[in-house]
Amino acid sequence: MNKVSKLILILFVTSFAYFLIFPTLKWYFFTKEKDKQISSYSKEALRDYSKAQALSSLVKLKELYRKNPKGQIPDDLKYLIPVAKNNYKTYGREFPKSFNDIEALRGGFLTDSDIEELSLEIYRYYEEIKRNKNKIIQLGLDLSGGVSVTISLDYLELEQRLGRALSVLEKEEAIGRTMQILKERVDTFGLTEPKITREAGGNRIFLDIPGEKDERRVDSLLGGKGNLIFYVVDLDATSVLNSKILEAGPLYSIHDIKNSMKLDDSKKIFPWYIKDAYGVDDEARVRYYVVDFGLDNSFDGSHIQDAGILSDPKTGKDVVTFTLDSEGSEKFFAFTQKNVGKTLAVVMEGKIKSVANINHAIAGGNVSIQGDSFDKKEAQELAFVFKTAAFPVEIKIDDLRIIGPTIGEKTIELGIKASLLALVLVFLFMFVYYKTSGFVAGFSLVIYNLFLILAILSAFNFTLTLTSIAGLVLTMGMAVDINIIIYERIKEEIRNGRKFERAF
């Protein structure tokens, strides 16, 4: 390989490594602490914050325009400039010569819909920060603190339902499935890579989430069993319900309508919310269905083992699929066989997640649901509901507490400074003792090697702990040590009369 090829290869590897490590550098060195905190909000909380921030900014802009149209744009409103430029294009209006004054910025926000568009831009900004966090090197519980949870599994309810005691193998499967669901729930909430372990020979699970400080957020993530249930829809009662809603007008009370219908005890009304632009349930866009609670008209979703999405080769539409355990396969076959031609509602925690028709009896435990209006995101969300909604057994939170880092923030800061000082001293020694060769070795084996290692760790969203830092330091020390041994051997060969080129 000639020099040009080597240079191209080095530049390619360096560029690719920088691409991998950039999200980590951006998060720890260029993202404000306030932005980090806001990006950790739930979808509902982030939507509310975005709307409030948009309204506050536009109110301030109007007030500044009223006082002094030619005034300078304050720093806290400069983030409005890209949105204003986009609005100018949308309105088909002529761009101002510059966006240096309040008047030019005010011209980009003339209608009420601008508040909603600005709110969405703010929301997308923080969602992007949240996505970037999933691409960085995380700090472990010992470095950043976080939440530690102790969970115990209660097999009693499942054993009562089955009418027998669970075998050791069934308990092991329940623990494994619970740990998998916990991992997927934590990942979907956008939290740091968790550490999930189990009690040896026991029924307890230990969950550590580094960097998380909100107990309520973690509690909501773990709370409840999900109680995913499939119900048969009473189409006649649903039709009557919708007619009464139309008659009552926009200020209807679903509670009053329910009382006027005098439904049987085996019937219940559930809402199906349409998602808004933020991906949150829209209270103003909701449909109601009456479902049948009869024993033969429901199916427990805890039998679901796995779920995913496929593309129908004939229609090209996304299809949500899930698989059932052996007991669930038999029950689902009987359930669908009895209700062929009827409508099925998937209900979780009091809300309908999807509605589908039962076209035929389904045997074998492999089920698919195809919605006429599924898009990719909706299909993924429904598959996630199937996969993680119901734990196989009841879980109880024995302990949930916030813990601080093993070493304090000041100690971490001093450790970083000490490490940098040590690197500088090693470089000085290598340069003074081995001249240019020492500098090249130090740069390639220490700096560049460390850079590549961190890039790879960032790509895999690795969690950095005190132990892993010790491993990195040891690796760098061994690299320098080996290099010194090699150089000393070369010097020995030269002293023995070998020429420089032959001493290597």
In short:
By secondary structure, the chain is of the alpha+beta class.
CATH topology of the largest domain: Gyrase A, domain 2
Which residues form runs of ≥5 with pLDDT under 50? Answer: none
Average pLDDT confidence is 82
Radius of gyration: 30 Å
Helix content: 40-55%
Q: Would you identify the CATH architecture of the largest domain?
A: 2-Layer Sandwich
**From the structure provided, what is the oligomeric state, counting identical versus distinct chains?**
single chain
Q: Tell me the number of helical segments per DSSP (H or I, 4 or more residues long).
A: 16
Task: Give the structural class.
Answer: alpha+beta
Most strands sheet? 6 strands, antiparallel
GO biological process, one term: intracellular protein transport
Domain Protein translocase subunit SecDF P1: 177-234
GO molecular function: protein-transporting ATPase activity
Pfam families: SecD_1st, SecD_SecF_C, SecDF_P1_head
Describe the structure.
The structure is a single chain. The protein folds into 4 domains: 104 residues, no CATH class; 94 residues, Alpha-Beta Plaits (2-Layer Sandwich); 160 residues, Gyrase A, domain 2; 88 residues, no CATH class. 53% of the residues lie in helices and 19% in strands. The chain is built from 16 helices and 15 strands. The strands form 4 sheets. Strands 5, 6, 7, 8, 11 and 12 form a 6-stranded antiparallel sheet that branches. A 4-stranded antiparallel sheet has the order 3-4-2-14. The relative contact order is 0.10.
